[in-house]
Amino acid sequence: MKYTNILACAAIALAGMTITSCEGEKDLIIIEGNLPIKTSTLYLVGDATPTGWSIDSPTAMAASEADPLVFDWEGNLMCGELKLCLTTGSWDAAFIRPVTAGTEIGTADIDNAEFKMHAGDPDDKWNVTAEGVYHLTFNLREWTMSTRYVSAPPAPVKDPIVTDVLYIIGEAAPCGWNIDSPTALTKVSDYVFRYEGALNSGELKACMATGSWDVSFIRPASNGLTISKTGVESPDFVFTAAPDNKWVVTDAGMYTLEFNLSEWTISATYNGEIEVDTDPIETSTLFMIGDATPGGWSMDDATEFSVDASNKYIFTWEGELVPGSFKLCLERDGTFSCPFIRPSSANVEVSKSGVAASDFVYTTNPDDQWKVVDAGRYLLTFDLEHRTVKAEFKGEGSTPEPPVTPGNPDAIETSTLFMIGDATPNGWSMDDAQEFTADTDNKYIFTWEGKLVKGTFKLCLERDGTFSCPFIRPAKANVEVTKSGVAEPGFVYTTDPDDQWKVIDEGRYRLTLDLENRTIKTEYLD
After folding, report:
1. Cα–Cα distance list, 282 to 175, 330, 366, 387 (Å)
2. Same fold, 167-272 and 418-524
3. Closest Cα to residue 205, out of 218, 224, 215?
4. Cα 526 from Cα 522, distance rounded (Å)
5. Which of 10, 182, 235, 284 has its CB 3.0 to 4.6 Å from that of 167, i.e. a possible disulfide?
6. What are phi and psi of 63, to 5 degrees?
7. CATH match of 287-395 with 2.60.40.3620
8. Cβ–Cβ contacts within 10 Å for residue 405, how many?
9. pLDDT per residue over 84-142, tens digit each?
10. In CATH, what number does 418-524 get?
11. Gyration radius of the chain's alpha carbons
12. Phi-psi bin for 224: left (phi > 0), alpha (psi -120 to 50), beta?
């Protein structure tokens, strides 16, 4: 009898447990797929959109009345790229992107294609292949997008453009790409502006404001239309923020450019070759910058020359150069918009044999530089009266020394280690550089785990916003990182040349840096 009662009690208890379990399971909700993206705003940004790459004022989409998480937009898209953002003012925010980079938007409609959203790299974007009027729909509840090609692009409205100023900008212009001080044209009537002067070989466009790239520019209707000795390839221009079409000056020389803002036309007349200034260059100081030099591209750390005591036009410097390029300026100009002393043509070589061509020019553009091909110690002599340069090779150089520990000359001392590069999660952002973890038992061992994509990377000891600090690099350029590991484990710690590791296989990796023995180990995880 007692046995029966025990069984009955056990059955009741088991039933109670079963009921409790079922009640608990009712509270467990399993969500599959992406949660809705909750936002009241959505924007298009890119050179395919009406507002171009302006993150401060991108093209707004409108929430539909039926569902506030479904956004629509209809308007003209140009050939180019686009992605979407939820807020304005920051490139560091998450962006809506295609699942596959370069997915085309064209005359063929797209129905409910999936998209993804993330910040940083890879910076995947849609590619608009046919200009025209489109209707775009983004469903943030279902994470899908649709496109419909409505019509061919509308004919541009050519109302007269009213302005008191007009500028040209680009490597072909005397100002280069300096948006704060572009080259001004002369206003000759209400709608006609003229420029008479030198144009270098390179790109060119025109604008009506300084200080911002987020404005409309006067451009050719298609990219790469030429300006040459025979004139301009097509007289018509457009006035738009995007796409970023530019004229290309193919023949450097003296020109007369004339913009008619009423007719929306441009004319170009070639007036002859550029007259080279041969007057002595007057200065009390001379500086050198470039990745071949000790200070790299840092204007604050520009390498200073010494003036000859008996000749104010002779400047000399002796020191180590590494493979790379360099140019010279008269003062440490932080804007980089000053004229530079440059070779008369691009990539004039400096080697053990000397300099390939002794003459130089003093100009803002084009951005020609000397190219060092043999590392070593050099004596450079610049004659600013006769505009000549002499390079004397003095012997093999030595590798710049990193911070060291007494008794351990090869060890690099640091408490922090960071990684940047387009192969890393946050790209080239120094503020968001990937931080390594120091080993608790060995202060020279640092590790990092995460996803790497195809691209390059290098490492630094601190988040140096100037990018002029020394970096940990492979001993030569493009040492490969693959599923099998790193091709060569050794590394160097130096300012130049700008060698980087190259990731071939995407995936999750564990990187281990030994700063005592100067080796790197890469392990492919999945």
Report:
1. 21, 9, 22, 12
2. yes
3. 218
4. 12
5. 182
6. -70, 140
7. yes
8. 14
9. 999 999 999 999 999 999 999 999 999 999 999 999 889 999 999 999 999 999 999 99
10. 2.60.40.3620
11. 31
12. left
